[in-house]
Write a structure and sequence with these properties.
Helices cover 19% and strands 23% of the residues. With 324 residues, it is an alpha/beta fold. The strands form 4 sheets. It has an 8-stranded mixed sheet, covered by helices on one side. Strand 8 (146-149), helix 4 and strand 9 (192-196) form a beta-alpha-beta unit. It has one domain (3-320): 3-Layer(aba) Sandwich (Collagenase (Catalytic Domain)), CATH 3.40.390.10. It has helices spanning 3-12, 34-39, 119-124, 160-176, 268-280, 310-320; strands at residues 45-46, 64-66, 71-73, 79-87, 95-99, 104-108, 135-136, 146-149, 192-196, 203-204, 209-210, 217-222, 228-237, 240-249, 254-255, 266-267, 282-283.
Length: 324
């Protein structure tokens, strides 16, 4: 399909297939249907309204789809966008919106447990090097990931040089497959840190919400809600990644060095390692895998997430292979 045709589809996309209702009941006298939710001007589209075919004549590109917490903007034809992150507790579940050019569908991520993985929960989970669990998002980088860092909203208690260093190291942790399980280095395409930037990621922190995608990949800070430590939005065409933005919480939970007598502090480098996992194509493992980097919540006062567990490594290896 030519780029001109793709742009034309994006500009005029409507979803077809919904048969118009034939009842004579006035619209004002009956509750709104999912189709009417989709076509209501201006406001966000409930994720449940995209469970079936959308209303003919209802343009959706650029509209926000929401589950009441997280929001994702409908991308142009042929593109998908997803948002996912990691938290201190609770259910951390994002979702993906795909625009095929004839349909727009939204798919929720896997649900997780409602509590943080405390030490007893980690002891009850398989050891990191014996847990083979991994889930893939379905996209990979065909060429190197090029990214910049925006420190404008970084908390004043953190130091910019150390933050940038840990972001770069965290990228290497995931990209190279750093582990203590004796597994070899991965062949993930090289990444390129392009320095600091004033550009903002296409993520609004309040929801959070994923906006319009582009190929300018930015890591930044923002006020994330509900115990979230980090959130990543990523855009892909088919199985090819085209962009990823990351927002790290600027609240009091994250530290670059764990204090003595640590309580209620989470490792910055381990958190960013998890988020790079989303950017490279890993999904959450789900509950019961508290020793893996890609579980949806991270344990406090530990640096374990800096190194990949066996399942994390297996997932990356399925996508990128390893060096022999």
């Amino acid at each position: 399909m030519t780029s001109r045709r793709v742009l034309a589809l994006a500009a005029s996309l409507t979803l077809v297939g919904l048969v118009a209702a034939t009842t004579a009941t006035p619209a004002s006298a009956r509750p709104a249907s999912p189709a009417e939710d989709r076509c209501a001007p201006g406001g966000p589209i409930p994720i449940g309204a995209l469970a079936g075919a959308a209303h003919s004549g209802c343009p959706l590109v650029g509209r926000m789809v929401t589950d009441g917490r997280v929001s994702v903007m409908v991308p142009p034809a042929g593109m998908s966008v997803a948002g996912d992150g990691v938290g201190t507790h609770g259910e951390v579940r994002g979702f993906t919106v795909t625009n095929t050019g004839s349909t727009v569908r939204a798919v929720r991520g896997a649900a997780g447990a409602t509590d943080a993985p405390t030490s007893p929960a980690r002891r009850a989970s398989p050891p990191a090097c014996k847990d083979r669990t991994s889930n893939l998002e379905g996209h990979t980088w065909r060429t190197g990931l090029r990214y910049r860092v925006n420190l404008k909203a970084m908390p004043g208690r953190l130091h910019g040089r150390k933050v940038v260093k840990q972001i770069k190291v965290a990228n290497g942790n995931m990209r190279k497959g750093r582990n203590t399980c004796g597994k070899p280095r991965l062949k993930t395409p090289a990444s390129h840190f392009l320095g600091r930037t004033a550009a903002k990621p296409n993520i609004r922190p309040g929801g959070p919400s994923c906006g319009t995608g582009n190929s300018r990949n930015v890591v930044a800070f923002g006020n994330l809600p509900g115990g979230l430590l980090g959130w990543t939005c990523y855009w892909f065409l088919g199985g090819r990644m085209v962009g990823a933005d990351m927002l790290i919480d600027n609240g009091p939970n994250l530290v670059t060095s764990l204090p003595r007598n640590c309580t209620s502090k989470w490792d910055f480098e381990g958190t960013v390692t998890h988020e790079w996992g989303h950017a490279y194509g890993l999904a959450h493992t789900g509950s019961g895998h508290a020793n893996l980097t890609m579980q949806h919540v991270l344990s406090p006062c530990s640096t374990y997430a800096r190194t990949l567990g066996l399942g994390d490594w297996i997932g990356m290896n399925r996508m990128y292979g390893h060096r022999h």
